[in-house]
Write a structure and sequence with these properties.
heterodimer; A: 246 residues; alpha+beta; Porin; B: 244 residues; mainly beta; SH3 type barrels; eight-stranded antiparallel β-barrel; 2 helices; 14 strands; 56% strand
């Protein structure tokens, strides 16, 4: 069995190396990519001269009638400050199912892909309180202090469902959006890592062009086996955050 | 935790201020530029800037450009209109924008996948660097979250793309790495263990829009245990990635 896998891996490695040595970047304009760049650069006079200049000098047989002295223009993308990243911190309260509501702190990162969608990553921490069983029984403790630490992360996507503006008084308008998020991640709680699905909805108001205030509500759904049997728990969280675009 | 958050916020603010530069001057070529109140198609147009005027591009957010005209009026303009402007040298502005034709010729890719690893949930973050259009090296970190055990996988591999010019690109991959498994102590009395593994797999990646990729893959893992028999596991994952 092991030998077969080794042979398979080796064959694949050789195959890949072989195919990869095929030239591809130096290929003439056959692919859609090069066609598109030719069309694009054609519309500026200088660049179009560059393209045809390349062809004239490339196929020179005998004395050239026209010797184009066109300087190659280096095409450099314009330096524009892009602000697609967002980072910040949040504070709020998280209800750990069966273990009270507590203050939660966290960090949030987002990358805005277009005006509708963004990728989002969050990481947060809270300390779970006592379950009602522990409170009533008086002595028995289900979890140690370190097991009561509830740490989660989630990576996912958001959709700006309701973009708009918020009007404060008669003279101030601030851009805003109500968005929905869905992510997957892990939660470390009660002595184990648990696969977590995080669903949320939030509202973002841009206080300044680069500074946003958020109000988020999230539900962290996971399986927990602390109180008797394994069950799906919903851990609801409401937070306020400040993020900066950069 | 609190001082840490404060530091992060200050750092973010610092970055935001530092980024506020002078911007780039361009000349309007379209009949007019439409200035909106926000970076989105639904925001109202409140100003127009006619052809021939010079405007300054202050910043960009996704497909929208924040500009200021000579009279100091500001607004957001869509990429399609900015793409028709000229820089003072007379050449058309070059906007650094990945598109369909860049997919397959890109160098770097990062993504996030989720799925099933031999019955356990798996979340994977990966980064790839393309040596050429066909072959790229990949580094991946996975977290396994199962009912009986948790674990991590770190792996290093090679991926071969058969047709980098297609919109939907099939690929094959091989690699090796380490797996660390921690059985859940309450259920199984077994020690943690770290073993070497190797995988062979395949999948597809598809271009969605801008710099967005959808990726789905299958991997067959062999874990080289120090017991008599090696272990095999099948993994199925799907997720999103960006290229740049």
């Amino acid at each position: 069995m092991e030998n077969r896998i080794r042979i398979l891996l080796l064959t694949l490695a050789l195959g890949m190396a072989g195919c990869s040595s095929l030239p591809w970047r130096d290929k003439p304009a056959t692919g859609t990519a090069t066609d598109a760049t030719a069309v694009r650069s054609d519309s500026t006079g200088q660049a179009s001269a560059k393209v045809s200049g390349g062809q004239v000098t490339g196929g020179a047989e005998g004395p050239a009638v026209i010797d184009p002295q066109v300087e190659r223009r280096e095409v450099r993308p314009a330096r524009i400050d892009t602000e697609n990243w967002e980072a910040g911190a949040y504070v709020g309260s998280l209800s750990v199912e069966d273990f009270e509501v507590n203050v939660v702190y966290g960090l949030r990162f987002a990358y805005h892909v277009n005006e509708d969608f963004f990728a989002e990553g969050i990481v947060g921490r809270t300390d779970a309180g006592l379950s009602s069983y522990e409170r009533l029984s008086g002595s028995a403790s289900l979890l140690t202090d370190s097991e009561r630490e509830f740490t989660y992360y989630s990576l996912g996507f958001g959709w700006n469902a309701l973009p708009g503006e918020v009007f404060l008084g008669g003279k101030r308008a601030m851009n805003s959006a109500v968005y929905l998020t869905l992510g997957v991640g892990g939660t470390r709680f009660a002595g184990g890592d648990r696969f977590t699905v995080t669903m949320g909805a939030g509202a973002r108001v841009l206080v300044k062009d680069w500074l946003a205030a958020h109000l988020d509500v999230r539900d962290h759904v996971m399986e927990v086996d602390v109180v008797g049997s394994t069950k799906t728990t919903h851990n609801l969280e409401a937070t306020l955050s400040l993020t900066a675009f950069f | 935790m609190r001082p840490f958050i404060a530091c992060v916020l200050l750092a973010c603010a610092g970055v935001a201020f530092a980024a506020a530069g002078d911007g780039l001057e361009v000349i309007v070529v379209d009949p007019y530029l439409e200035l909106r109140t926000g970076p989105g198609r639904g925001y109202p147009i409140v100003q127009v800037v006619p052809r021939g005027e010079t405007v300054r591009i202050l910043k960009r957010r996704t497909d929208w450009f924040h500009i200021r005209d000579a009279a100091g009026r500001e607004g957001w303009v869509h990429r399609s209109q900015i793409a028709e402007t000229l820089v003072p040298a007379g050449a058309r502005i070059e906007i650094d924008d990945p598109a369909r034709e860049d997919f397959g010729a890109h160098r770097r890719e990062v993504g996030l996948l989720a799925g099933d690893f031999g019955g356990a949930n798996v979340i994977t973050a990966y980064g790839a660097y393309a040596f050429n259009a066909h072959l790229s090296g990949e580094v991946a970190i996975s977290q396994l979250l199962g009912s009986f055990s948790d674990g991590q996988i770190a792996s290093l591999g090679l991926t071969h793309f058969f047709r980098p010019d297609w919109r939907i690109q099939p690929f094959a991959s091989i690699g090796t790495g380490l797996i660390h498994v921690e059985p859940k102590s309450a259920l199984v009395q077994a020690p943690d263990r770290t073993d070497q593994l190797a995988y062979v797999g395949g999948g597809v990646r598809a271009y969605l829009a801008r710099r967005f990729i959808l990726r789905a893959e299958y991997k067959n893992y062999v874990v080289f245990t120090d017991r008599d028999e090696n272990e095999e596991a099948n993994e199925w994952k799907i997720g999103f990635a960006f290229f740049f």
